[in-house]
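User: I'm curious whether this sequence folds into something compact or stays loose and floppy. Could you predict its structure so I can see for myself?
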Amino acid sequence: MAYYTGRSIRLLSQSLIRNAGCFSHRHIPCRINQFNFIHLPSSQNLAVLSRNAHTEGSNISTLSNEPNLVSSSTSVNVSPGTLDIENLPHGVGHMFSDAAPILATGDLLHVIHGLPGMDWTSTILLTTLGIRLFVGLPITILQQKSLAKLENLQPEFKQLATDLARETSIAVKLYNWDEKKAKSAFKTSFKRHWRKIVEEHNCHPLRGAFLLWLQIPFWVGFSCALRNIVYVLPEPRTSEMLLSWMQIAGENPLWIESLATADHFILPAVFLTANLINLQINIMRKLTLPQTRLQKTLPWVFRVGIVGISVFAAFTPSAVTLYWTTSSVAVLIQNLLMKTKPVRKFFRIPSTPSQP
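Assistant: Here's the prediction. I'll summarize afterward.
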């Protein structure tokens, strides 16, 4: 058994379709009957593909004619004339690979990819922008409105603190409270009145945090769906899954060698930069609000997390990293636009002392 990479994968895929009698330069009207690779001996996989291919049905794209489509870091265990699908490269386990939401997301990606003129690169970009537009943007607008209301309530909170401090001083003299009891009474009373005010104006800080966390399932879902395509998951595998892998591995947009292999530098660097700027924008936005010790510490935790994910992205297939990077850049553009007066006026975000 020998190991072939890069050019060997391209030649193998082209040989596969030539043997099926339906090879062309770009798109091939071809359909391959579905079967379970996992139950076949590895030496029979390619032969079965060839026997079951015939010229009807949906379009599939062959790998590009460029010689370096898959980097040497991605190997496929093959022998002459065979393809060992069981030893295709695998990612970080099979986590969530067969979960219903992940499979449904994968089906959606395949539907978009099947539209006229769509390759996997444009599918990833279009899907990412769609998520940001129809999910991320409404959440961001609600968060901006909540933060603006909260900032505009700061004078009322300061007046509340002044009034409660005066009442506490009176209570200390009337009931002989010690300093500890006075502080406890002040904090309890202030929290109760503060909570009542923010609930009346529908701008509780946890509401904004919840809206942000609401986006995580979408991020996980599309990341795992792309992971499934790149690593031919879940098992049992089918010929259609292999063809999707061949198509996504054959795309090399711009500097990227293949969407199935990692981009170790550019995409992770853009991802890191965009997310650090986004974090700083959010920090600057909240400087006008009182902050607890935890709130002052969290930005550093987030910075460490962003750096960690960026390092992980350097060893993640480019298809997944492209989704992460495009989403982060879209958020950055969105945040910058949200700081402009015409955009804030259009979405009816209240004016504030920091954003008049």
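Summary: The longest helix spans residues 120-152. Strands lie at 2-5, 27-32, 53-61, 75-78.
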